Amino acid sequence: MTMFKGIAASDGIAIASAFRLTDPNLSFDKKTVDDSDHEMSRLHRAIDISKQELRTIQQRTLKDLGIHESEVFKAHIAILSDPEFLKRIENTILSQRVNAEYALKTVSDGYVKIFNSMTDNDYIKQRSTDINDVTKRVLSHLLGVKLTDPALIDHQVVVIAHDLTPSDTAQFVPNYVKGIVSDMGGRTSHSAIMSRSMEIPAVVGFQGDLADIHNGDEVIVDGLTGNVIVRPTPEEKHRYQAKIRDFQARTSQLAAFKDEATTSSDGKHPILAANIGTLDDLQAAIENGAEGIGLFRTEFIYMDSESLPTEESQFNIYKTVVQKMAGKPVIFRTADIGGDKDLPYLHTPHEANPFLGYRAIRMSLDQPDIFRTQLRALLRASAYGNLSIMFPMIATTIEFQHAKRIFEDERQKLLEKGVAVGDIKLGIMVEVPAAAILADQFTNLVDFISIGTNDLIQYVMAADRGNRRVSYLYQPYNPAILRLIKHVIDACHENQTPAYMCGEMAGDQKAIPILVGMGLNEFSMSATSILKSRALIKELDSREMVTLANKTVSMASTSQEVLKYVHQALDES
Amino acid sequence: MEKRQYNITAETGIHARPATLLVQTASKFNSDITLEYQEKSVNLKSIMGVMSLGVGQSASVTITADGEDEKEALDAISETMKSEGLTD
Question: For A114, which residue in chain B has the nearest alpha carbon?
């Protein structure tokens, strides 16, 4: 038995066998071959097996995840069925007397080069990813190396990965992937956020060598404490099975709070909303009793797509969300692309400091066509429910005014065409320290402010939240952060502007008492945190929490002191 | 040998979906079928070939079929062009 530590990223405990999701070694040498017939038959065999595999994966994804996720595999099969592609590989084998691996790679690279050079056509450029992927698959069969396909998982596993991409998780079959362990990222990395929305227990920032976990090893993932236990003893396994039962009992207890209002013991009503990114998350939000959607991450629509999503496809998603929320407020954040969320089809140049670079509203204002398409889709959807829009990464009031002008312009154009448009509130995310400091000036312009703590904390502490070596600086309870948050909330209330929060901190059981004391109006969090937060807030007296909040911002100098005050206040109440 | 010319009126040109359908249609016939655009010519049964041409809006393309079922092939292709909204 070996125990490792990591960061607890998604609640729950899983026990299953390890499934390593790693990049295989596909290197090979160029060889001169006399027996071309043999190379031809190797090539055809590898292609046939690849096609069979792809058909299985395609059918599985179609059945389990839907037509959209399965399309990519259909494209892969089409490439392997292309007579021209095959003929070129065969000709290369014959005329240059080379091995099948080399011929395949040369022809495939040739196509990738042509497609990449078609600068005016993003869809076709994206096809080069497909060619690369499918080439890897055929190569793996030529070399006899096993590719790891998340979609081929057919039994209960804990996925072990360096990092997970959205396309990896899109292929997960939820009933089989029981847990996730990754050595990248913190609680706010994409792997972590996605595992929470899929309600899969996860530990990220694994502090060991992933190579110590072998395929098939029994692994316990404790997403509550961040512990990962490899090859547990029977006693240890027993202990964890009991913990799983406790966790399940607690979850079903909390279910009683689903339809109750969130009311503190002295009658205050903060709104508990959910952060979501997809329509699947929406279901989880409703099941967990969300009183609204405080953050819809629209960039997931862009990341799930192989080219820019059309106005129509966006409109359909936005409309479904507001309709399903049936009059409850939904705040859509316009695309927060860039930073750690790069889109291959946009071909944004690589930056040394992506988190300080070209992302979110900066990109939207610079490429207004993409922005306008999204705004039109949102405007049209607003006729079907309670819809608000917020802009991410706003640093200056001028950026907000600029974005608002574009919004007004699109609104006017739709109205002139006779298109129905609802009453939309416009707000900003406060995550850049400059906007937080200047919050009072923003309150004159916006309908609401939503504090995005994930980025705000990393910018205030000057520490990359995905970098394990500095992750100790990611301190939501640091008094510097609390003072800044209080400053923003106070500025909002002085000008009758509602103050919301949509970072991870809003669902943090130790931060909630302080934030209730500061008078935060809406807490938006992972759906799975809503019920326990509601149970917590019902126990709190907001007047006592005001005292707690004041104490933390005036008397504490470290996170530890803040936590001490929180524990004291909770014990007393 | 049969030859026909088409003016592509679709805003997105020969995009992924119509390209796939054109290739599927062409693949049903025995004739050799080529698509010519801006002096480049590709096999219409090759999806990668068709996409590598990057045919955009208001392009003029020529499709040639050569073989026993050349006429039927071009009729079917014209039909697909129309039903996919590539031509008027």
Answer: B52
